[in-house]
Structures are given as C-alpha cells and as structure tokens.
Design a protein that fits this description.
- There is one protein chain.
- The protein is an all-alpha fold.
- It folds into 2 domains: about 1-50, no CATH class; about 70-180, no CATH class.
- The protein has helices spanning about 1-5, 20-25, 30-40, 45-50, 70-75, 80-95, 110-120, 125-140, 140-150, 160-165, 175.
- The longest helix is centred in the middle third of the chain and has 18 residues, at about 80-95.
- The termini are far apart.
Length: about 180
C-alpha cells in the first residue's frame, strides 16, 4: 500500500484508455511521454509522471471473465467495453420493443420509462450501458465512477452520463451479469 503511494504512476495504468493519457500529456513537455513509456529515472521524471497521472485513479489488474459478480469485477474486466455494449444493446432492444403491441415486459432490465430515458440522445451502446449502471455506480462512490470512465474513451464523458442517470432504477444485477451471454 505504501509502495503504491510512492509509485510515480497509479496502479493499473495499462487499463486506462489511451485518450485519457493523451489528454494528460497534452500540456506537458515531451519528456513526460518518455517517462510514462519508459519509467522514471530521477526525481524530475517522478514529478512529471505524477503530474501526468494526477487525475487518473488506480485501477485493479485486468481479469478475463465474462460474468462479473460485482461492479469492482466489471471495472477489472478486459471485455468491459463489450459488456457495456451488450448491456446497451439489450436496453435499446427493450426500448424499441415497447412500440410493438403485446411486447413482453422485461422488468429485469428496469422500468420501461427509464430504459427509454437511457437510450435517448445517443447511439453509442457503451454510453447506454453505462447509464444502466449509473445507480449502482452512485452507490459505490465517486472513485468507482472515475475508474469506469477512464476505462473508455474520454470523449464519451461517462462521468457526466453516470451523474445524469444516477437516480434511475438500475436493471437487476443478474440481467447485467448475463449481458454477454447473447
């Protein structure tokens, strides 16, 4: 734990989406890029690395599993973008099926009105999937929101999406776990 606090870069930096690292390096001298790529050699390098990574949270080691048992497991998934896409696809399919008379209700995906709200304003299935997780992320805390956001492209603004949808009713965890099952 103390070693992590003294490390020039946060744990799990390899799991951070490159767009976050590029944004962090944008205002720094070229030496900072070399330090992140090759490691710190002196105190100035350590300072540059810490400055570049100041807004990046520590991440758990990546794990290859398709059915996360918790939100922490989900953040550690190597297939997190695929999982969020699958969740988003399920939400979108349910939302569009509501226009069909007699369509079966899928209560495990959340109330119909909230599923429709999650699908509104975006075609990015990862964003819809993240919106479905928002109430669970809210309960887990701000570090979890940041960890989830940095795993995906910065331009998705996932922290804003999670905040905007945090008061909704989430799908059941079992439905979320099974998203990649097909």
């Amino acid at each position: 734990m103390l070693a992590d606090a003294r490390a020039p870069v946060p744990a799990g930096l390899r799991a951070v989406h490159p767009s976050w690292i590029e944004a962090a390096l944008a205002e720094l001298p070229p030496r900072a890029r070399d330090v992140l790529a090759g490691g710190a050699r002196d105190e100035v390098d350590v300072w540059l690395a810490r400055w570049a990574c100041a807004e990046l949270p520590p991440l758990p080691p990546l794990v290859d599993h398709a059915r996360p048992s918790s939100l922490a497991d989900a953040i550690a998934m190597t297939r997190l973008p695929e999982w969020l896409t699958a969740i988003g696809r399920g939400q979108l399919q349910y939302a569009t099926s509501l226009a069909t008379p007699g369509a079966p209700r899928r209560d495990e995906l959340g109330p119909a009105r909230e599923v429709i709200a999650r699908c509104r304003g975006t075609s990015d299935l990862r964003v819809i999937g993240a919106r479905a997780l928002a109430p669970l992320v809210r309960d887990a805390g701000p570090l979890t929101a940041r960890q989830l956001a940095v795993r995906l492209p910065r331009e998705l603004h996932l922290e804003n999406e999670l905040q905007a949808h945090h008061a909704a009713i989430a799908p059941t965890w079992d439905a979320l776990r099974r998203a990649l099952d097909g």
